[in-house]
Write a structure and sequence with these properties.
With 383 residues, this protein is of the alpha/beta class. The protein has helices spanning 22-25, 40-43, 46-53, 71-83, 95-107, 115-119, 182-200, 208-228, 235-248, 262-274, 278-292, 298-309, 316-333, 350-359, 372-380, and strands at residues 11-14, 31-36, 58-62, 88-93, 130-134, 146-151, 156-161, 169-172. It binds 5,6-dihydroxy-NADP (NZQ) and zinc ion. The site of zinc ion has 5 residues, from helix 7.
Length: 383
């Protein structure tokens, strides 16, 4: 196991009715900005619950955060925060709303051009405090210090991380996910599964706790994920998927182990250029990364097949092949496409897709050996 230092200060409030705890979680006398998305919270009653609970607070609103939140929209919110002297941000939504709120929190206190937080990794010295009510089990953003923001004008999608943007609290009520469209539920299942994979499917370092935890999370995500589309109002299924998604990316399983993240990084351009949902990009790319990197990842792929998909093939080669096929089949059963051509993307589009990897000179993967040329080879396997 590698050395590590682990810090996660997010207070989690989990379960039915937990939105009613908000008033006690937000510091008294705060001037609160409620940040939300395109209006799903108004249709499913979450908005009313939040407003009721926060009756005694000085509260203003900013709505219209897009899926794959736009830098431009976040900057409008930053203007409002400054004009109104807001001192606490409350995100109510999916990963996009929480990510946007993290960026707003940092950008509102940033001296200089806030885009540099994303494009140059500029240091964040201060951020407004924030809290999160998560409405979509997927990203883990409610309990981590990361965010991904897109700039529409330049078709860029970039991420940043800072301990200053950890939410102070995360409210997780599985019942709020009942209203999710099947597509978004499926996206969340696939995204959280691949978060575990990015931290697990590398090379072994005898990190038994992290490996066993990761394997349990994947088993649960596959089992419950395959049930949830037929049982969208089953509390226990929703609760297990929600807590699994949070644990998939709150730091625990990634401590002291090598991490990959190439499917995620390569995937950003598929969203920025062709508008694919985040999880859709991953379902296409991951089988390519597994296939191309199978030698380097072989021990973990073989174990993944055994533990998560109950595969016992007679040869190493067959076990690896069938494990990759099992992952792809799982994504397809969840209703996601797994090939670029299914989105109308052809070999001729690959150069533009790997351009960010080239431009940023990223060396992706646990070995740092996926440059833009290798990324192109991986995508070529997925046409
Ligand atoms: O905008 P509203 O009206 O809220 O509708 C949203 C949106 O249309 C809807 N929705 C959310 N909760 C709902 C609901 N509809 C009905 N009932 C509910 N309870 O779902 C749609 C998608 O929401 P979004 O927040 O975009 O989805 P998700 O949570 O999958 O977040 C995706 C974003 O997170 C980033 C992705 O890149 C993408 O931008 N990620 C963030 C990470 C992080 N911070 O750690 C890690 C991830 O790997 C990921 O990159
Ligand atoms: Zn993800």
């Amino acid at each position: 196991m590698n050395n590590f230092e682990f810090y996660n200060p997010v207070k989690v409030v989990f379960g039915k009715g937990s939105i009613s705890r908000l008033a006690a979680l937000i510091p008294h006398k705060s001037k609160v900005l409620l940040v939300y998305g395109g209006g799903s919270i108004k249709r499913n009653g979450i908005y009313t619950q939040v407003i009721e609970t926060l009756k005694s607070f000085d509260l203003i609103e900013f709505s219209g955060i897009e899926a794959n939140p736009h830098y431009e929209t976040c900057m409008d919110a930053v203007k409002l925060v400054k004009e109104q002297a807001v001192d606490f941000l409350l995100a109510v939504g999916g990963g996009s709303v929480i990510d946007a709120t993290k960026f707003i929190a940092a950008a509102a206190c940033f001296e200089g051009e806030p885009w540099e937080i994303l494009s140059k990794g500029a240091e964040i010295k201060k951020a407004l405090p924030l809290g999160a009510v998560i409405t979509l089990a997927a990203t883990g953003s409610e309990m981590n210090e990361r965010a991904v923001i897109s700039r529409v004008s330049t078709k860029e999608k970039l991420n940043f991380a800072s301990p200053l943007v950890f939410p102070q609290f995360a409210v997780l009520d599985p019942e709020v996910t009942y209203s999710l469209p099947a597509k978004q539920t499926a996206n969340g299942v696939v995204d959280s599964f691949i978060h575990v994979i990015e931290q697990y499917l590398t090379y072994p370092v005898q990190a038994k706790v992290q490996d066993a935890f990761a394997e349990s999370l994947m088993k649960i995500i596959v089992e419950e994920g395959l049930k949830v589309l037929d049982h969208p109002h089953d509390y226990e299924i929703r609760a297990n998927l929600m807590w699994a998604a949070t644990n998939a990316l709150n730091g625990w399983i990634g401590q002291g182990v090598p991490q990959d993240w190439s499917s995620h990084r390569i995937g950003y351009a598929l969203t920025a250029q062709f508008g694919l949902d985040h999880a859709e990009t991953l379902a296409v790319i991951l089988p390519g990364v597994m296939t191309y990197m199978q030698k380097a990842k072989e021990e973990k792929i073989i174990r993944l097949g055994e533990v998560v998909f109950n595969l016992q093939e007679t040869t190493k080669e067959k076990q690896i092949f069938q494990t990759i096929a099992a992952c792809e089949e799982f994504f397809r059963k969840m209703g996601l496409k797994t090939r670029l051509h299914e989105y109308g993307i052809t070999e001729g589009d690959l150069n533009i897709l790997v351009e960010p990897v080239r431009q940023m000179n990223w060396k992706l993967g646990e070995q740092g050996n996926i440059n833009w040329e290798v990324a192109r080879e991986i995508l070529l396997l997925r046409v």
